[in-house]
């Protein structure tokens, strides 16, 4: 299945009537129904959400988990406490729910998916595939990942699938069938609503473009390609390991096309 667009006069009722197995978004009467993404897309979304969520999805910088061993510059544990790296997969959320990445206090021996040298700045809510109403029932988007500063949103609404608080940061993982909708429709809608930061991530090209909105206009302020360590605003308090965002089974195996 490829992405399906209903160009005119779609309503929120049409969005709710869409099949559960597709991601459905609505902007000013235009409906986009996207199929489940290919694995490369999911790997990138999972890795970005995992790293940003663990490093920033806490109340503050002093809320550090216990039982985390100190590490050396190469990521190996020091002392008598063993450190084991284990991937932390995200569950696939429906359009009426989202996953929150919040790091609370850990128990001794807790395993984390990456070394802890750079710390945990905290201060954000990080949600996976929330249904965001930029304009109630008229502009409804489902970004791959979104973030809210806790100073703006101390606690997210719990008893609704409609998020009406505009996020501070949005991350879109691009696929060929949805790229034009992301750039032509969603990007201006984010700017009009007051979203400050936007990441456009191209897994096939291993590229991240960071946009900042000033006076309703987007400026591309950072572009990073490949597997570098990078500081990407608004999360530039720490270096992020882009290499794990593109990790694919088989290493140099030929890549399949995204949807």
Structure commentary:
By secondary structure, the chain is α+β, with helices and mostly antiparallel strands. 15% of the residues lie in helices and 26% in strands. The chain has helices at residues 12-17, 39-56, 179-193; strands at 4-6, 23-27, 30-34, 99-101, 124-128, 131-135, 139-141, 145-149, 162-163, 169-173, 197-202, 207-214, 217-225, 229-230, 240-241. A hairpin with a 4-residue loop joins β11 (197-202) and β12. The longest helix has 18 residues, at 39-56. It is globular. Residues 65-97, 101-118 and 249-258 have low confidence and may be disordered.
Tell me the layout of helices and strands.
Layout: E1 4-6, H1 12-17, E2 23-27, E3 30-34, H2 39-56, E4 99-101, E5 124-128, E6 131-135, E7 139-141, E8 145-149, E9 162-163, E10 169-173, H3 179-193, E11 197-202, E12 207-214, E13 217-225, E14 229-230, E15 240-241
Parallel strand pairs: 6-9, 10-11
Antiparallel strand pairs: 1-3, 2-3, 2-7, 4-5, 5-8, 6-7, 8-10, 11-12, 12-13, 14-15
Number of helices: 3
Strand content: 25-35%
Q: In terms of structural class, how would the helical and strand content be classed?
A: alpha+beta
Let me know the number of strands: 15
* Biggest sheet character: 7 strands, mixed
Strand order of the main beta sheet, please?
A: 4-5-8-10-11-12-13
What gap, in angstroms, lies between the N and C termini? 8 Å
CATH architecture descriptor text: Alpha-Beta Complex
**Oligomer, anyone?**
single chain
SSE order, one letter for each helix or strand: EHEEHEEEEEEEHEEEEE
Please state the overall shape, judged from the principal axes of the Cα atoms. Answer: globular
Low-confidence stretches: 65-97, 101-118, 249-258
Number of domains: 1
CATH top level label: Alpha Beta
């Amino acid at each position: 299945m490829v992405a399906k667009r209903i160009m005119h006069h779609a309503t929120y009722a049409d969005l709710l009537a869409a099949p559960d197995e597709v991601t459905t978004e609505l902007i000013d009467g235009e409906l986009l129904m996207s199929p489940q993404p290919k694995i490369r897309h999911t790997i990138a979304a999972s890795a970005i959400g995992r790293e940003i969520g663990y490093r920033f999805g806490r109340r503050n910088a002093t809320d550090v988990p216990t039982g985390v061993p100190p590490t050396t510059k190469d990521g190996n544990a020091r002392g008598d406490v063993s450190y084991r790296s284990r991937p932390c997969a995200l569950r696939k959320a429906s359009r009426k729910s989202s996953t929150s990445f919040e790091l609370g206090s850990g128990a001794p021996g807790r395993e984390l998916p990456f070394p802890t040298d750079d710390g945990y700045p905290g201060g954000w809510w990080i949600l996976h595939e929330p249904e965001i109403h930029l304009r109630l029932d008229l502009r409804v988007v489902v970004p791959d990942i979104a973030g809210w500063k806790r100073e703006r949103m101390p606690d997210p609404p719990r008893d609704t699938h409609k998020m009406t608080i505009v996020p501070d940061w949005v991350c879109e993982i691009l696929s060929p069938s949805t790229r034009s909708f992301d750039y032509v429709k969603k990007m201006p809608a984010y700017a009009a609503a007051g979203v400050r930061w936007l990441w456009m991530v191209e897994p096939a090209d291993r590229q991240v473009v960071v946009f900042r909105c000033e006076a309703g206009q987007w400026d591309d302020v950072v572009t990073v390609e490949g597997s570098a360590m990078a500081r990407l605003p608004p999360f530039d308090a720490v270096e992020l390991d882009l290499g794990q965002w593109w990790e694919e089974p088989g290493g140099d195996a030929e890549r399949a096309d995204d949807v």
